[in-house]
Amino acid sequence: MAPYVNVEHTADAGIHVTGGTLEELFADAARGMMSVISEVPPEGWPETHVVELSSPDLESLIVDWLAELLYLLEVKNFFATDPRVEKVDGGAMRAVVGGARLRGVVHATEIKAVTHHMISVDRTMNGFETTIYFDL
Amino acid sequence: MPDWTKCFDNISEYKIKIPRTCFEGMRVPGIIYAGPELVEDLKRDDAPQQVANVATLPGIVEYALAMPDIHYGYGFPIGGVAAMSVEEGVISPGGVGFDINCGVRLLASAIEAGDARAKADELATRLFRDVPTGVGSTSDIRLRGGDMDKVLQRGAAWAARNGMGWDEDLEYCESGGGLEDADPGEVGRRARERGANQLGTLGAGNHFIEVQEVEEVFDDRAARAFGLEKGMAAVMIHSGSRGLGHQVCDDAIRAMREAVVRYGYELPDRQLACAPVESPEGRAYYGGMCAAANFAWANRQCLAHTVRGTMERVFGASAERLGLRLVYDVAHNIAKFEEHEVGGKKRRLCVHRKGATRAFAAGHPELAGRHAGVGQPVIVPGDMGSASYVMAGAPLAMAETWGSVCHGAGRVKSRTSAKKDFNAATVLEELAAHGVTVRAGSKKSLLEEAPGAYKNVDHVIGTCVNAGLATVVARLRPIVVIKG
Hints:
The structure holds two protein chains of two kinds. By secondary structure, chain A is α+β, with helices and mostly antiparallel strands. Chain A has two helices and eight strands, in the order ββαβαβββββ. Chain A is globular, with a radius of gyration of 14 Å. By secondary structure, chain B is of the alpha+beta class. Chain B has one domain (about 5-90, about 100-484): tRNA-splicing ligase RtcB. In chain B, about 35% of the residues lie in helices and about 25% in strands. Chain B has helices at about 35-45, 45-55, 115-120, 120-130, 145-155, 155-160, 165-170, 190-195, 220-225, 240-265, 280-315, 395-400, 415-420, 425-435, 445-450, 455-465; strands at about 10, 15-20, 30-35, 65-75, 75-85, 90, 105, 210-215, 235-240, 275, 325-330, 335-340, 345-355, 355-360, 375-380, 390-395, 405, 435-440, 470-484. In chain B, strands 7, 8, 9, 11, 15, 16, 18 and 19 form an eight-stranded mixed β-sheet that branches. In chain B, strand 4 (about 65-75) and strand 5 form a beta hairpin. In chain B, helix 5 (about 145-155) crosses helix 11 (about 280-315) and helix 10 packs antiparallel against helix 11. The longest helix of chain B has about 35 residues, at about 280-315. The mean pLDDT of chain B is about 95. The interface between A and B is large, with 37 and 49 residues.
């Protein structure tokens, strides 16, 4: 099964993500979200950002993690392409994110926000899965 | 997906009730306004579940409502309206949405539609160049020193007083284009960073600018009061509070997801995170939301200023001579304190409208000048291929829907299937056949917003009118469409 697939939603967009470990799940969720914004990563100067977060629970943490990448895109013009999630432990995580600083305006899909809509991170036979919806 | 129609109790041809017994935890029934043509769409969508979810919120008064453009959202359905008791109820950022005060503004004009059509290509090219759209786009408006606080405090008035508008513009905005309860202190650093360069930008998704023709007038008196004349051009602008508002909502949900545990609420969806209206979290959100709403009003004011400038250059006359007067500016994602009658008594309620438009009837004390005798203008954008409508609020809306009606056509097709089912060349051809000139940021945005992705706006308007919530004043047909 692909690590992330698009999920139908009448007005917005969603991704269903699977991962053998929580670290994989978080990295695949990031890749999935960036693919909703632009299927082909836009060009730019290589850049790396370190993301460290803590949240009350796993569900909040994965939403906060993706919201952090949206913030980096909107404010720092940084498009994440290579999220290396080093550690997800309870409600805390650390990632080193490779990507590109965009050179100008990109006509891509604008995600307004990562929603908490029906969010649940679940354990499966092979690891973890979750479905995340974005407000477009 | 459960078959909700089994649960439906038809009150009338245009009004469906979801009884409290239908879903565990409902405190009040749900009411969906949907005519016979729209009921089929309801079966294919899980939005009725979201109406039921809203009905479980603490302190909800009378019913959880949904307008005929209802479709699946997150937290509240799109088209959802709920009034909460100020004393015992909650305020929920999920009942407003991320795009706080997303809304529509309509400019009338003294330009013959034929003249606009003759210059459609030039208008489209210039508007697309002058109005910043797309991810990462910024405007030329630079906010210095304390400017941001002033924008957050004053809304459209800030722009109008800084050379970007006319004084009369403010009179014809809902709430005068600014909410007094705004608390800029509740707009955090990140929200300010996101909004810093975005004042006067359109955004993407379903946001647009359209040059339209007033194709039909159904109510001469109201149309005259609104400044609309058959055969003339008009300009419609659809945008919101940009990244600033999205972040204010995000921050509030983060604060409230912890408050939910503290207040012991059990919610069917985390996106419905909420706090008592009169709690520190509730007050903080409301102050921040009002400030973000003001940012949105300032944004639409700046966009209108840009549009007036473009029209001046294209038609070689001043905006005043071109008669580019504001018809109205409505919010369709907002929570407000309003007085309504409940069981024969006036009560102050916290009314949430998410993808729904305020529609006050004639005589309401909040309606000014030329609108007082005909009701509030309600601006309803349709899809880019067919038509948009202007309606006027009717007395029954005051009695049944807390003075609210629909906000658009409402989607029926997901963005994914729209991309699969439509083809850019065909969509452009069809739009051209309808006399519509389009400029869009990408093929993807064109396909996602293709006319076939939306409900038939005539059915949505038909339900509102037949249910008695509003009267129809005019139909507008697109000539030029600008998409992010």
